[in-house]
Fold this protein.
Amino acid sequence: MMRVAVVGADGQLGTDVAAAFSGRGDRVRALTHGDIEIARLDATRNALEEAAPQVIVNTAAMHHVENCERQPEQAYAVNALGARNLALVARDLGAVLIHVSTDYVFDGRQTIPYEETSMPLPLNVYGNTKLSGEYFVRSLLDRHYVVRTSALYGKTPCRGKGGRNFVELMLKLAAERGEVQVVDSEYVSPTSTRELAAQIVALSRSDRYGLYHATAEGSCSWYEFAREIFSLANVSVTLSVAPPNAFPAKVPRPLYSVLENRALKHHGLNVFRPWQEGLGDYLGLRQQQLVEAAN
């Protein structure tokens, strides 16, 4: 049994991370924004010294891309200095830090999956601040895992992005309109937060510290993701490819955000399945919860 502090424990990923560690019998301290302000070193130290964790998992971030662009100082305070503060406190406590990062550290100009050795080149403030956070963690703390992931969806609403993940948005639009347009020019690896949480737990049981890519296996365009959602959910809808510039981006984003879990596989730690299987599990659990709520 380990003592684990989960920062951002009421978020989309943090909720599943806390549940995954608890399910393994660990003693979890769930820290929300009201419990810890990672942008401040003193507040971070006070919250974590009291919890005395052996493992700290940071799922907290300012990840609304447009808001990061409008408020770069705040984004840097949370995403970069917040990571620094956690690394400093983890070092003082002798704790391991698992820090969640993003595919947005890359510019998306590749046409083959990015590996851990690929050169980062962020296109926006969010990506730059998250990359800065990675560098703080990697330079300040030996016992760390930096975990980059992509296109997350989970049962807990993501407050920083309006409370609805892509799966739920597609199902909502289909029910309301019966017709949906989705871009077919951006590629991702849709990743269930439950599967990422299981991967984080698996990493925590190893001593293979370092930088990891951690996404579901395979990739698709957002259009192909939507098509699979409707197929697995057995939803009748008219789905079409959005014409060019139908949804103009307010902030530059990578067009290709596919990550290869090279380091996980090298160390025999990869637990991910094809993205379609994770999506099927998510939709099955969602249907089960709807039935239970109706009864």
In short: The longest strand covers residues 96-102. Residues 3-294 form a domain with the Rossmann fold fold (CATH 3.40.50.720).
